[in-house]
Write a structure and sequence with these properties.
GO terms for molecular function: methylthioribulose 1-phosphate dehydratase activity; zinc ion binding. It comes from Mangrovibacter plantisponsor. It catalyses: 5-(methylsulfanyl)-D-ribulose 1-phosphate = 5-methylsulfanyl-2,3-dioxopentyl phosphate + H2O. Keywords: Amino-acid biosynthesis, Lyase, Metal-binding, Methionine biosynthesis, Zinc. It is a single chain. By secondary structure, this protein is of the alpha+beta class. The protein has one domain: Class II aldolase/adducin N-terminal domain (L-fuculose-1-phosphate Aldolase), CATH 3.40.225.10. It contains five helices and eight strands. It starts with a helix and ends with a helix. It binds the ligand CSCCC(=O)C(=O)COP(=O)(O)O and zinc ion. Zinc ion binds next to loops.
Length: about 200
C-alpha cells in the first residue's frame, strides 16, 4: 500500500473515532509507519477528529525528531516505542475514551484482566472467551520519555501485543494495518464498557 493511501486510511480512522467521541477536545494522537526509520504522527494540540493529511508530521522512529520543525504529538515517544518493539506495527491509535479513562482508574495494580467475553476474539490471536486476556495498565506521567522507559522496562512484548492503558488518561493500541488498529480499538472499547457495567451491577 502506498504512503498516501495509508495516510488516507488513517485520516478516515481519525474521523471515525472523533465522531464516536473518543478524542474529545484535543485528546488523542494517531500515526502510521512509513518504513523502518520513519512514521507519520498527528501534530500536537489539534482536534484529532478533523485532521487532514497535512496535519501528520514525519517523525524519526529512532529519536522522535521531526524534520519539518513542527511539533508532533506530546506522546510521540509512545508511538515510536511501539514501532521499535514491533516491526510489524503499521498503525498506532491513542484515544481518551470515557471507558478507558474510568476503568484504568478502577484497576488495582498493573493489569486489567478480561474474561468471559465473546468480543475478546476481536483481538489478534484470540479464539475463546474462556482465555484470560491481560491489558497492561501504567500510571500516567507528564514526562513521556520516563513513561516510555517505564513501559519498555517493566513489560514483555507479549503484554503489549495489542496496546496498553494509561491510568486516568486513555488507551493506546496498534495494528499490523490501520484496519486492525481500528478493530483493536473498537473491540477493547466495547470490552471496557462491558466491564465497567459488570462491575457496577455487581456492587448493587
Ligand atoms: C487535553 S489532551 C492532553 C494531551 C494528551 O493526552 C493527548 O493525547 C493529546 O496530545 P497531543 O500532543 O497529541 O495533541
Ligand atoms: Zn493522551
Amino acid at each position: 500500500m502506498t504512503q498516501q493511501l495509508q495516510l488516507a486510511e488513517l485520516v478516515a480512522a481519525c474521523r471515525w473515532l472523533g465522531a464516536k467521541g473518543w478524542a474529545p477536545a484535543t485528546g488523542g494522537n494517531m500515526s502510521v509507519r512509513q518504513d523502518t526509520q520513519w512514521c507519520w504522527l498527528s501534530e500536537s494540540g489539534k482536534d484529532k477528529g478533523s485532521l487532514t493529511e497535512s496535519d501528520f508530521l514525519q517523525v524519526s522512529i529512532a529519536d522522535n525528531t521531526a524534520p519539518s520543525g513542527r511539533t508532533p504529538s506530546a506522546e510521540t515517544g509512545l508511538h515510536t516505542l511501539i514501532y521499535r518493539l514491533f516491526p510489524e506495527a503499521q498503525a498506532v491509535l491513542h484515544v481518551h475514551t470515557v471507558n478507558a479513562t474510568v476503568l484504568s482508574r478502577l484497576v488495582k495494580g498493573n493489569r486489567l484482566t478480561l474474561q468471559g467475553y465473546e468480543m475478546q476474539k476481536s483481538l489478534r490471536g484470540q479464539s475463546s472467551h474462556l482465555d484470560a486476556l491481560q491489558i497492561p495498565v501504567f500510571d500516567n506521567d507528564q514526562d513521556i520519555s520516563v513513561l516510555a522507559q517505564r513501559i519498555h522496562s517493566g513489560t514483555s512484548k507479549e503484554d503489549l501485543q495489542w496496546g496498553f492503558l494509561l491510568r486516568g488518561h486513555g488507551l493506546t493500541c496498534w495494528g499490523r494495518n490501520v484496519e486492525e488498529a481500528r478493530r483493536h480499538l473498537e473491540g477493547l472499547e466495547f470490552l471496557f464498557e462491558c466491564e465497567i457495567l459488570r462491575r457496577r451491577l455487581e456492587v448493587l
